Amino acid sequence: MSEYLAAHIQERLAARAHELGIKVEVRDDVVYLHGQVASVEQCHQIEEAARMAAEGRRVCNEVSVVPVREPGGEERLS
Amino acid sequence: MIRVAAVGDLHVGPEVAGAYRERLTGLPDHADLLLVAGDLTRHGTVEEGKVAAEELHDLGVPVITVLGNHDYHSDQQDDITRVLEDAGITVLEGEGTTVECGGTCVGIAGGKGFGGGFAGRCASDFGEPEMKAFVGHTKAFAERLGTALLGLDCDTRICLTHYSPVEETLSGEPPEIYPFLGSYLIAEAIDASGCDLAVHGHAHKGSEKGVTPGGVRVRNVALPVIQQAYAVYCLGAE
């Protein structure tokens, strides 16, 4: 069942990659990963952890890196 | 007027060492202090704690932080705290501190916090020992937080936590996981003390702005939410 597989992959992401905010979807024979992480290295680690639990399915990694812009502006609270 | 810079969920490690600090150049020109709302690390190791200390030391303004759930993962939170404090960073866990900013005394109290949920849809201190322990952890924290906030002798009072005190700043996260993202007990402590601002992180898919039932402004400063090196909030008269 694809729902169980998605849940197991999410457990693996938490245990191996320590990422809790990645959305996992399984459609046919493809595992899709969505979300944002802090670095390219983390992005690779997530894909690797997901592949280990994907039971041979193809992993489509659509996780992106959080853009950290220069600080801009301020909010006045009165 | 006090300018408070705030950010959370840096999740640094050796693989990104130095990258965040590059964004902090000129911080004293924009803010009087920096608050960090937990999850400085990914795996909660001392090695990552040392990277966090390198990113945040000697920035030219006082740096006050709390730890987050990631910082507890490897059971090295005490060592991480020590590494940060050795670097001159103040780490709060259920206590408060004050800093002088241009003649104004700013008091900050805080800590990691914990979950449990929000009024009407929250966990109760009832049933299995595991459930009592879960709720009890949040209750004990909220009591210490309330005491720390009320004990601050200051002109401006700020609450700093990792977990959220309100639902509004979780908007964007699945509602089913709200009980794991914060607790109304934190907001109750904030409202009882007359805070000027409450800052938290943890909810990466949440929203920046919220308010407690008592009217205290709440800001979720998780890096994926603010998407800039830090947000700046100005408090008090010019």
From TrEMBL, chain B:
One GO term in the molecular function aspect is: UDP-2,3-diacylglucosamine hydrolase activity
- The Calcineurin-like phosphoesterase domain sits at 2-205
What processes does the entry annotate via GO biological process terms?
lipid A biosynthetic process
Q: Which keywords does UniProt give here?
A: Hydrolase, Metal-binding
Lineage, highest ranks first: Bacteria, Bacillati, Actinomycetota, Actinomycetes, Streptosporangiales
Look up and give the organism this protein is from. Answer: Actinomadura namibiensis
Q: Name one GO cellular component term.
A: membrane
Protein known as:
Icc-related predicted phosphoesterase
